[in-house]
Specification:
heterodimer, A: alpha+beta, outer membrane lipoprotein receptor (LolB), chain A, 13-stranded mixed beta sheet, 5 helices, B: 163 residues, mainly beta
Chain lengths: 277, 163
């Protein structure tokens, strides 16, 4: 039953998903075998089922007061336009809404760091060097992370899924959406959806039932010719045990405070690599 | 630049001479560093990351900014790779540092002054001493002062005027 539903939906939606400009119905005054030239106006094809899945997932995550999760991440980098390499990392994220966060990241390119937020100050700590940078950000975790990204280019992967002011944040930018099929991720038979926005395509694998959590997220950067992908596999713990100390950053012995640098001030082009003679 | 590329070719011992001609597909063409250069490695504009967020709040969204770059502080790793990618992207004693840029291993501190405002993902592997002046931490390497900052999610070292 599920298979026939998925096939039926797939057939109906996937062509529209792939080429939203194509209208599948026959236009009046033309023969039924008219070649599929795109009409002047693109017709968005957002399958209600896919949009609802996104809304339901967002609402469920918003309802969680505390949770922790583990993320296994593979992120593609494009060298010189067409050489793609994959970089791997993991993140262990602890969240206590609305304003407590700890995220411990380990990964390639020496990107190990821990992020702390306690409702007042966002701290970025690098264990290897014991450098830490802090940013005042009174408010919610969502606000702090958005401010850090805007001001300092600090990305927090899966921010959109975990922190949103409204489920509309996810659905408002959709240009197309559809159900792809079922797929087993880890211990769950998830429902796999594909979504399109102007800048990116993304896919979510969502647990069915009363806990519609995302188990995998893949984002395709379609504006770059090589279309690199970011892929995160997620496991969740909805009953973690937290105490306040977890989210508080205490500089360890020998730690040195440094500054965040605004991403706009980055002016190093290759020509600046030359030492002065 | 041509001198630089030829030097890389010779030392790498790799058949990338044909690729020295500018080719978007050849990472060697983007190299700005070279063996013997003790200057810090700078960030090339030719490495792009896949987006990791559905909605993007980064004001510099359209730049080829990469987050989570290397932090290479006093590392003495010399990885001699023999992966034949585009005629020898790796190899010849070079280490790929995640910037699409070869980094000669165990580079000692240079006596050459580096332009103020230059960003580097790593410091020279030796010869730096940490100092605190006016409450701000610097790394003093040869004639250069580097101030560590967090930028785009990684630690970068920016050359500043002597404090």
């Amino acid at each position: 039953m599920r298979k026939s539903r998925s096939v039926r939906v797939l057939v109906a939606v996937l062509p529209a998903l792939i080429a939203p400009a194509l209208v599948l119905s026959v236009r009046p005054g033309r023969a039924a075998t008219q070649p599929a030239t795109p009409p002047a106006a693109a017709t968005p094809a957002i399958a209600p089922e896919a949009k609802d899945a996104l809304t339901r997932m967002g609402a469920f995550i918003k309802s969680l007061q505390t949770f922790s999760m583990h993320q296994d991440i593979v992120r593609e980098q494009v060298i010189n336009g067409d050489l793609k390499v994959q970089k791997s990392s993991t993140a262990d994220v602890s969240v206590r809404q609305p304003s407590d966060l700890k995220s411990e990241v380990h990964g390639d390119d020496d990107r190990n760091h821990t992020l702390f937020f306690d409702g007042k100050v966002l701290t970025f700590y690098v264990p290897e060097t014991k450098y830490y940078a802090q940013m005042d950000a009174p408010g919610t975790t969502d606000q702090a992370l958005k401010a850090a990204e805007t001001r300092y280019g600090l990305e927090f992967p899966t921010r959109d899924l975990l922190f949103m002011s409204s489920t509309d944040d996810l659905t408002k930018d959709l240009t197309a959406a559809g159900f792809v099929g079922t797929s087993r991720i880890g211990d769950a038979d998830t429902e796999h959806y594909a979504y399109r926005t102007a800048d990116i395509d993304y896919q979510l694998w969502i647990q069915p039932g009363d806990k519609p959590l995302p188990r995998r997220l893949v984002i395709t950067s379609k504006k770059l010719p090589a279309k690199p992908q970011y892929s995160a596999t997620l496991t969740w713990d909805l009953t973690p045990k937290f105490d306040d100390a977890l989210f508080a950053f205490q500089p360890p012995e020998g730690a040195t405070k440094i500054a965040f640098s605004a991403s706009g001030s980055m002016k190093n082009s290759p020509t600046q690599a030359q030492p002065q003679k | 630049m041509n001198t630089m590329n030829r030097r890389i070719t010779a030392l790498g011992g790799l058949a990338i001479a044909s690729a020295v001609a500018v080719s978007a597909a050849n990472p060697a063409a983007a190299y700005r560093g070279g063996v013997g250069r003790a200057a810090p490695v700078n960030r090339p504009a030719n490495v792009q990351d896949a987006r990791s967020n559905i909605s993007n709040h980064n004001v510099n969204a359209n730049r080829n900014t990469n987050v989570n770059r290397n932090v290479n502080v006093n590392q003495n790793v010399n990885v001699n790779r023999n992966v034949d990618v585009h005629g020898g992207y790796y190899g010849g004693g070079y280490r790929y540092d995640g910037w699409g840029h070869p980094v000669a291993a165990a580079v000692a501190v240079t006596a050459t002054a580096v332009a103020v405002g230059t960003f580097a993902a790593s410091l020279p592997s030796s010869g730096c001493s940490g100092v605190s002046i006016g409450g701000i931490a610097y790394q003093h390497c040869g004639p250069n002062y580097y101030q560590p900052v967090v930028q785009g999610g990684t630690t970068q070292y920016v050359v500043v005027a002597p404090p």
